[in-house]
Amino acid sequence: MIINKNNLEKLQKLSLHDSEFNEIRTVYDENTIVIPINHYYFRTKAILRFLDVLYCEITLNKLWGYDNYIFSCELNEEDIILEELKRLHYNESKKEFIVRSKLREYQSLDEFFSLTLLLHSGDKIKIITRQIVLEKVIKQ
Question: Is the separation of the CB atoms in 90 and 84 below 8 Å?
């Protein structure tokens, strides 16, 4: 399943509630985040792959105790950080002599969206991305 800005309603179809994960991997050079999960609803191992990631923030406080299950996946409608990235992108595109940041690789940041995975522990994983791919691996 592929999710992008044009089909964000599919986020609910991911059915991530109670899915377990143990690690988060980043492929820095590719701006990719990979989260292997045991998908509760589909009863399968799966991989959540976030492509063209511009921002990621993870809290590790375990406010509600240790628990590595996803409680919810929520869109951040008016994300301040995404708006700031759009402003920086616009400013960079207007200047001729500037170090080329990753933002310059995109014609527009309008295809990007922000979401937060809230964990049962109370921790959050916030990601600004252009695309999410859910890959089913094998039945449990």
Answer: no
